[in-house]
Amino acid sequence: MAAPRTSAGALLSVEDLKVHFPIKGGVLGTTFAHVRAVDGVSFELKSGETLGIVGESGCGKSTLGRAVLRLIKATDGRVVWAGQDLFGLGAKALRDERRQMQIIFQDPLASLDPRMSVETIIGKPLRIFHPELSRAEVRRRVFETMNQVGLAASMANRYPHEFSGGQCQRIGIARAIILKPKLIVCDEPVSALDVSIQAQIINLLMELQRSLGVSLLFISHNLAVVRHISHRVMVLYLGKIMEIAERDDFYARPLHPYSQALISAVPIADPRLERGRPRLLLQGDIPSPINPPSGCRFRTRCPKATAICSEQEPAMRDYGVGHFAACHHIGE
Amino acid sequence: MSAEPAAAASPNRPVLSVQDMSIQFKLPQGWITAVDRVSFDLRQGEVVGIVGESGSGKSQILLSLMGLLAGNGRCSGSAVFEGQQLLNRPPKELDAIRGSTMSMIFQDPMTSLNPYMRVSDQLTEVLTAHQGKSKAEALEVAIEMLERVRIPEARRRIRLYPHEFSGGMRQRVMIAMALLCRPEVLFADEPTTALDVTVQAQILELMAELARDMRTAVAIVTHDLGVIARLCDRVIVLYGGRIMEQGSLDEIFYDPKHPYTKGLLASTPRLDEKVHGELRTIPGQPRAAMGDFPGCPFEPRCALRIDRCRAEMPALLGDDKGRAVACHVSGV
């Protein structure tokens, strides 16, 4: 719970955020259980920082990204955005803040309206938030943004289906940056792309971050991609933070048994290294978030689990240089 | 079985030999070539990785060998498995081979398991149909196989329906089903792409064990070079329906010759990387639709291209140990 807190440069501060989805059933449609997708998550994001959020399917990483933008209603907790409580904002104030926060989705084609031309798609946020701009000015800025993401202005009149996956993702990125936002939530932005295209998009995001100074919440299941792009890394498991640390520190010294298992599970494209690597194979699959294990949520698959792990939830502890982890057995 | 004593004595005789296989699809604009004159051998106990971008034709090769090509597709060339021609065989004749001496696992287990049938019925059907076992015998063999792929409480779980299993468990059920008749050849089409890394690690371990212990020849299609590095003995690199390069695992990773192979390796972000600068990329996009053109399919994206590359597809030249490269500029 005692997560890293309050620094002056924080753009976004998430405090004990919870998102529970009701499961309804029966004839009366009564709620009989909750999916605890995000269950008490706290962290901060600095201006111009990239925080990588990793975890397996069902760990709540996408829900967290959406709840932070208030695209999903949080059950409990606070999100402080540039000094104000985001959940307390009225419709108009929220709308004004929304221009500062954007999202990029995993499936680039599905997130673009097939009946709109590329120019219309990319220019839409401008026309919504800046109705005073002339058509010529909107077009000028659209072309400028297309150029920034590596799309030729000659493509402006084409439709999404005429583009490959990588180019559609560039269109999505252009739409996200045209309002010069302060935060972009990237929800698995390169997972659907081929390796050679994935590298292009990662480079583009890193370059845009440098030139625009935007903060990124980079959600991915790919630990290698996250290592490449992030300043800090956060590991989620069943809606809870297991570990959060500076990038290099995290990969050199993962403290939580789950982080260690995750890292050892990723195959490295280097056969000699692979032959000599120790494997920490986890048993079984991730349990259901409807009825998560008592105490530490990872204990059912954890090689280090003991009695205390089922009785008591481990607190988030500081292991120096901003390295936090929640486990009873670190340092044994 | 082969009558030649030399072949029988060799520990690594080819079980499957593919020669000049081409696959075309009929589209409104005419016949489009998806795979162009691909040849390779598959030996006992060997794991061959086929790697390439989406649309490179890698899955179509496996589907054609299993006689599962889509209705608008046709294939030519030859694929000899245990002295029998596989390509363009009537489905009735293929049924004697498919599922018994040759089987396949797919990316999405839910689409290949029948949701209306108990797992026990689906598994025993394979054995009663191919090996004429009684139901009771078949059930024991099936339970044994589920235990072998490490499904806990197999005797109870075999009575369940596919939806009652988690994603990783379903993939194991499908692997168990594919292995029931102890096939000589196993085709795997992105078998772990839909799985979380911790579950992927378990499945890869399992497949390596099967190739080792049961001497099954495995051909695995994937876009993940890490998976290749962990599992395979030999690698075939496809681009635009053609083999660009093939060789042993170490040759491909430590001595790549083809510009596409080099680009692919360089653009993969690695979990163990020390530098975080720009990723090397392969510029441009893969061809949206393949036409019949005379040159090398990688030519538009290749940094080393010369005039000849556009006019003429380089032949796949190599030594007798299976090392081969198709490039005018950079050969073996």
From TrEMBL, chain A:
Subcellular location: Cell inner membrane
Pfam families, per database record: ABC_tran (PF00005), oligo_HPY (PF08352)
Keyword presence, Nucleotide-binding: yes
Superkingdom, natural source: Bacteria
Main location: membrane
CDD domains: ABC_NikE_OppD_transporters (cd03257)
SUPFAM superfamilies reported for this sequence: P-loop containing nucleoside triphosphate hydrolases
Statement: the UniProt record of this protein carries the keyword Ion transport: no
Keyword set, alphabetical order: ATP-binding, Nucleotide-binding, Transport
Entry membrane topology: Peripheral membrane protein
ABC transporter domain: residues covered: 12-263
GO molecular function: ATP binding
Family assignment from sequence similarity: Belongs to the ABC transporter superfamily.
Listed name of the protein: ATP-binding cassette domain-containing protein
Organism, scientific name: Dongia sedimenti
From TrEMBL, chain B:
GO function term, MF aspect, one: ATP binding
Keyword Membrane found: yes
Domain of life the protein comes from: Bacteria
Annotated compartments: Cell inner membrane
Gene3D superfamilies, alphabetized: P-loop containing nucleotide triphosphate hydrolases (3.40.50.300)
Family note: Belongs to the ABC transporter superfamily.
Keywords per UniProt: ATP-binding, Cell membrane, Membrane, Nucleotide-binding, Transport
NCBIfam families linked to this entry: oligo_HPY
InterPro entries hit by this protein: AAA+_ATPase, ABC_Ni/Peptide_Import, ABC_transporter-like_ATP-bd, ABC_transporter-like_CS, Oligopep_ABC_C, P-loop_NTPase
Topological relation to the membrane, as annotated: Peripheral membrane protein
Main location: membrane
Full protein name: ATP-binding cassette domain-containing protein
UniProt keyword Ribosomal protein present: no
